[in-house]
Amino acid sequence: MRGEGRVITRTMLLERVWDFHFDPKTSVVETHISRLRAKIDKPFAIQLIHTVRNTGYSLHAPV
After folding, report:
1. pLDDT score at 1
2. For position 13, what pLDDT does the model report?
3. How far is CA 54 from the centre of its chain?
4. What's the CA gap between 30 and 58, in Å, rounded?
5. Residue 33 region, left (φ>0) first, then alpha (ψ -120 to 50), else beta?
6. Which one, of 47, 57, 49, lies nearest residue 10 by Cα?
7. Cβ atoms within 10 Å of 12's Cβ, excluding its own
8. How many Å apart are CA 54 and CA 3, to the nearest integer?
9. CA-wise closest residue to 30 among 49, 44, 43
């Protein structure tokens, strides 16, 4: 949540979370985003995780 509203790319997530310094053809990011959505978005009316098409993901706290 430190970067609320800022777009975080798939590569940035791979480097910062899993310490990958290359962009492997893996679905690890998509898998974890899907699991996060199931836990923090699905049970509620307001979604926090937003996909920025062809760029990455961003978090938006409700106002």
Report:
1. 64
2. 86
3. 13
4. 13
5. alpha
6. 57
7. 15
8. 19
9. 49
Quote the CA–CA distance of 57 and 10 in Å, as a whole number. 8
Specify which residues 9 forms β-bridges with: 56
Show the tokens assigned to 50.
Answer: 């937003």
Residue written as token pair 């307001």: 46
Architecture of domain 8-59: Orthogonal Bundle (1.10)
Could you tell me if residue 32 is left (phi over 0), alpha (psi between -120 and 50 degrees) or otherwise beta?
alpha
**Domain assignments of the chain as residue spans, ordered by start:** 8-59
d(C-alpha 3, C-alpha 41), whole Å: 18
pLDDT digits (tens, 9 = 90+) for 1-47: 677 889 999 888 888 887 777 666 778 889 999 999 999 999 888 99
- The pTM score is 0.77
